[in-house]
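Q: I'm writing up a methods section and want to include an example of the input and output format. Could you take the sequence below and give the corresponding predicted structure tokens, formatted cleanly so I can copy it straight into the document?
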Amino acid sequence: MSTVALSLLAIAAASSGVLAQDPSSSALIPLASKHFDWNDLPYQADTDNLVRGTQQGYNRCNSTTEGPDSMCQTATVNHLDDWCLWAPPKPDSTIGDTEGEEVAWCTKKGRGTRLIPGGAITGVQFTRAPGYLQIVGFIDQTKINLQSDDGGGELDPHGADFRGNPLGGLVFSNGFPSNGGKNDTFQQVIEWHNFMGSNSFCFKVCDPSGPNAAALCQHIYDRIGVSYNCPSAAKNGTFEVCDSDNQDPPGIYTDASGAVQTYSQPPESLGVISTLPYQPKVPSSSNCVQYASTALFTDLVAPTSAPTGTAGGASATGKASGSGAAGTASRSGASAGASSTGAASGSNGAAAVRISVVATFAGVLGAVAFLA
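A: Here is the clean output for your methods example:
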């Protein structure tokens, strides 16, 4: 976040009687700077009661918290048959309205979370790249409490107030080579992003030992969706695991002349993103192995069934006026992170701050969000 943005946030917060969440202040340790051991997790990773209120769930999850009402906010991404998504705790929700409250929905028992209902997952590609693990797939999102036409948005460990979306949400993995291949050894993933909406998703976790984790799991391109942030060859109806090259970091591309360029996402005030100057390059993959869904998700209540039709590449646009997890779209509203108008709500994981202040500061808050 720029110095100007931090100053504007401080002005708005001070005027509303709350403390600005400046990462240079002793009042706040950014979520992405907090490190925890899998076997010694705090009850809540977020202990701040600033601006957006308190963490809704908890991070210390076990057999006593597992079930349909779990508020566990510790997610894992491990293997083709073992991963989680962030989704709302209450039915008929949108990502834009609940981004700070999402809970973990997983494919395996034993994590203390909610389980994704059987039949919800209709296709998945899990890729192992040198710098990250990535799960891209297709889902009936109504079965994980999302409205059917929600275009969704991005969840990540940042946000303009540095507390993450969801607040205090932690992610771990046992799938990186640096853990020595020990499936019982979980590493905290510091950089990650999860795009949800339009019945598709991407959850990418970047190797905490890798040299380029922050760039590969970039969190500032929340409005251009899965196909640009997680380019893949995922197909609805196919369940596979592949080795993969690293993608180009989101927003980085090579133009027709061979020059490397950086795309700048325009502010929401300019309206819907209808065109982009490049097409995302799907990284080369190899050693792909396909599985029957019934062999993968054995902990779910019922086996997943094959869908009708396909939607390759996890790049369907959907009916979104949100940040379009699977396509490009735009939100409306006075401040980033506010509920959209139209069919769906949006999310700005990199710049979503909900501050209940007098209307005279709405413009200031909008400026903060777009300068982040």
